[in-house]
Every structure is written in C-alpha cells, then in structure tokens.
C-alpha cells in the first residue's frame, strides 16, 4: 500500500508509521512521524492484559479479606462459648464455696407481672397468643383480671398479664 508524504504530499511512499522512511521527493526524514504514531496509538492488548491482572488481584484481595473475617467470627464465637462455659463453672464453684453444700439444679419458676394497655381491636385470645404463644390461654387472662363473659374490653383498659419464667 502506498502512502503520501506528510510534508510534500507526494504519493508512492512505503508505510512511514511502521518503518523509518526518507521521502525521495522532498528528502525529509519521516522518523518523527513514526515515533508520533507509536505514541498516539496505545497498544489495546496491553490495556486489556493490565485490566485483567488488576481485576484478578482485587478479587484475590477481597477473597482473602472475606475468608479472614469469617475465620475471625468463628474464633470469636468459639472464645465466647468457652468464656460462657468458664463463667458458668466459676459461678457454680463460687456458690459451692459459699454454701458448702452439694450443688443441685435450681428449677424454681418465677412469675413476672406485666401491665398491658388494651388497644383498638384487642381481645383476650389475641393477647394470649401474643404473650403465651397460645391463644387458648385466654382463660388465664380472664381469671387474672376478673373478666366475666359477656365482657367487652375498652381501649385504654389495663390488664394484668402473669408470665412464668424459668
């Protein structure tokens, strides 16, 4: 393929963007045009290669951070379990030192009393379902609050809810 000289515009030159050429017409050295051409056109394959390498390195770094954070969480959970076990053992030992008796499991049930303010749309079955996870225990709410059927709950009415805690 023939190219025109960028200086005198005469035709018939070889590709001066790839080889060092001297124009036979105007006797101009076209090496500068070869250098300018190589600078102005970046090599696309190198950009793609650098991009792939950069993304790969970033993904490796993030993967490492993710795995480290997961192992840190597992270690923290393991330390917490060991700490809880050691604290409970310390409490048992302290109780044994104070009482100088055999340790027996404590199975006392404590009763908590909650004051509940009735809202619009409430009825004993719904309240029992909320506090006891069993709506059929509405009779306990009725007996604790001296409700006799037929009754109507009023908005703002205060009910006493008794819950056994273990």
TrEMBL record:
Keywords: Membrane, Transmembrane, Transmembrane helix. Residues 114-161 form the LysM domain. PROSITE patterns: LYSM. The keyword rRNA processing does not apply. This is LysM domain-containing protein. InterPro entries: LysM, LysM_dom_sf. SUPFAM superfamilies: LysM domain (SSF54106). It comes from the Bacteria. It holds the Pfam family LysM. The chain crosses the membrane at residues 47-67.
């Amino acid at each position: 393929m023939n190219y025109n000289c960028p200086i005198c515009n005469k035709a018939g030159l070889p590709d001066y963007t790839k080889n060092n050429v001297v124009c036979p017409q105007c006797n101009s050295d076209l090496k500068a045009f070869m250098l300018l051409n190589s600078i102005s056109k970046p090599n696309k394959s190198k950009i793609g290669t650098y991009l792939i390498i950069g993304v790969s390195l970033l993904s490796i770094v993030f993967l490492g951070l993710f795995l480290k954070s997961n192992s840190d969480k597992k270690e923290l959970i393991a330390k917490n379990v060991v700490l809880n076990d050691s604290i409970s053992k310390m409490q048992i030992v302290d109780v044994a030192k104070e009482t100088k008796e055999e340790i027996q499991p404590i199975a006392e049930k404590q009763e908590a009393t909650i004051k509940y303010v009735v809202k619009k749309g409430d009825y004993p079955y719904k309240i029992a379902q909320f506090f006891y996870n069993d709506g059929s225990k509405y009779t306990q709410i009725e007996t604790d609050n001296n409700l006799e059927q037929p009754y109507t709950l009023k908005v703002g009415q205060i009910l006493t809810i008794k819950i056994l805690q273990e």
